[in-house]
Amino acid sequence: MKVAIAIITKDRPDFVERQLEYFKQMKTNHVIYYGDGSDAKNFEQMKRVINLYQNDVQIRHFHWPSLNDRQTTWELVLKIEEEYTCWMGDDDFMIPESVSQCAEFLKIHKLYIFIITMYK
Fold first, then answer.
1. At residue 63, what are phi and psi to the nearest 5 degrees?
2. Tens digits of per-residue pLDDT, 18-50?
3. So what's the pLDDT on residue 115?
4. Neighbours of 26 (CB within 10 A)
5. For residues 25 and 28, what is the distance between their CA atoms, to the nearest angstrom?
6. Mean pLDDT of the 54-80 span
7. How do 58-63 and 31-36 pair as beta strands?
8. Beta partners for residue 61, in sequence order
9. What one-character DSSP code corresponds to residue 99?
10. Which residues contact 71 (CB under 8 A, 6 or more apart)?
11. Strands, DSSP E only, in the chain?
């Protein structure tokens, strides 16, 4: 099952490159969404990095330099098309198969989120 992996980043193209290399090596089928607030210099480097991995990993990259992290998160939510989303930092790693298994679990156990929410 394809899951959106949503990541907010700013001025850290080296972190993004390391993440994308990881996702390439793991042969992920998930779509990686980047909400990017980078300045002009780092945005140019980010575009080069994204282009290097575009053929190996599904990437949706959005540049919103004038937004703060909360605004960027909201804008990214509006762009996501997949049924399930995994949020992570630009310095984190997720095992793609585990993300798929979590989505499959939630698909089968639709009340799980509802029950957890009731007890908070």
1. -110, 115
2. 999 999 999 999 999 999 999 999 999 999 999
3. 56
4. 15
5. 8
6. 97
7. parallel
8. 34
9. H
10. 64
11. 4-9, 31-36, 58-63, 85-89
| Long-range contacts of 91-94, Cβ-Cβ distance < 8 Å, separation of 24 or more | 91/12, 91/15, 92/19, 93/19, 93/22, 94/5
Say how many CA atoms lie within 13 Å of 15 toward its Cβ. 16
* Phi, psi angle pair for 8, to nearest 5°: -100, 135
CB neighbour burial string for 59-90, b if at least 16 within 10 angstroms, e if fewer? bbbebbeebeeeebeeebeeebebebbbeeeb
- Residue 112 phi, psi dihedral angles, 5° rounding: -55, -50
Dig out the tokens for 2 from the structure.
Answer: 């394809």
| Range 3-31 average pLDDT | 98
17 by Cβ neighbours in 10 Å (0-12 / 13-18 / 19+) ranks as: middle
Residues making up the chain, counted from first to last: 120
**Token pair for residue 72?**
């960027």
